[in-house]
Amino acid sequence: MRCGRRGAHGGGQSVVDVTYDRAFDPNARTANLRFVAGRVAVYAFLGFFALIYLIPLFVIVANSFRELPEITRNGLIAIPQSFSLSAWPRAWLHHCVAGTCEGIQRNFYNSLIMTIPATIISTVLGAINGYVLSKWRFPGSETLFVCMTLGVFMPGQISLLPWAFILGTLNLSNTIYGLILVHVIQGMSFTTLFCRNYYVNIPDDLVKAARIDGAGFWRVFYKIILPLSPPILIVTVIWQFTGIWNEYLFGVVFTGGRQQPVTAALVGLATNSMNARAYDVASCAVLIAAVPPLLIYFFGGKYFVRGLTQGAIK
């Protein structure tokens, strides 16, 4: 500790300058060591769990480039000793999946045909529902909102039998269009919840001023609500796309053969007992199926978090 005294101009007052040196302060050194130890413990804890999550990914990526005899001889978890790209075209074009020997190409396209329209339609309907339930309230609107959001907490298995009846009545069984209908209706509870909670934070004065100027229902929606909606719409699109793409229960139950999405085909590939297990081809198929959600995550992950935080703050 260094102490000094100096006089002020004119008034004769003095100011004591006291400076502490952390190198010679035992309390400061102890606090610094505790801080460093805490940071090391936190990073070690996070690194351990990150390693646990990354090991399966490493195994799949490594096996996709290994030859099948090596995998059979050394096991799934082993250091790669060979490098081959032959499994990739087989997984995409030639391997037998769900009774057809066309690879997962058709199933991949089925998932795209199913996921893109279902995501767009459910997001648009959720935005409209959220707009109505937040800015055009009517008697019973809160009760209707509670009923619509019950779907968020209901497991999909409960709706299998009703959906089987509906799809059979509409002649949409074993079709991609039937899956689109299922995912649009099942996803509206999430999209309505997201959009309604976001639109509630938009000042009602904006809507009232527009209505005084003569704007109607749709004009207020297009001119005021939609320009303020990109954060929550990005969140909804990412949520719906990844959820619909990764969902396999409805695909397995309501479709078969050439109509199945890629996740259902992967289940069939994993449970196929007619031929020897082609672990190299299965690893390639899993990685191919994971490409769209990974792209959504890498390019839209930061917007997802940003949209959630903006929707949570008034």
Could you write a compact summary of the structure shown?
This protein has 314 residues and is mostly helical. 69% of the residues lie in helices and 4% in strands.
Top keywords for this entry?
mainly alpha; 2 domains; 69% helix
Protein model, in words:
With 314 residues, this protein is mostly helical. It folds into two domains: 1-64; 92-312, MetI-like fold (Orthogonal Bundle). Helix content is 69%, strand content 4%. It is built from 13 helices and two strands, in the order ββααααααααααααα. It has helices spanning 26-64, 68-74, 87-94, 105-135, 141-153, 160-169, 176-199, 204-212, 217-225, 230-246, 249-254, 262-271, 279-312, and strands spanning 2-7, 14-19. The chain has a two-stranded antiparallel sheet. A hairpin with a 6-residue loop joins strand 1 and strand 2. Helix 3 (87-94) crosses helix 13 (279-312). The radius of gyration is 29 Å and the shape is flat. The model is unreliable at 1-12 (pLDDT under 50).
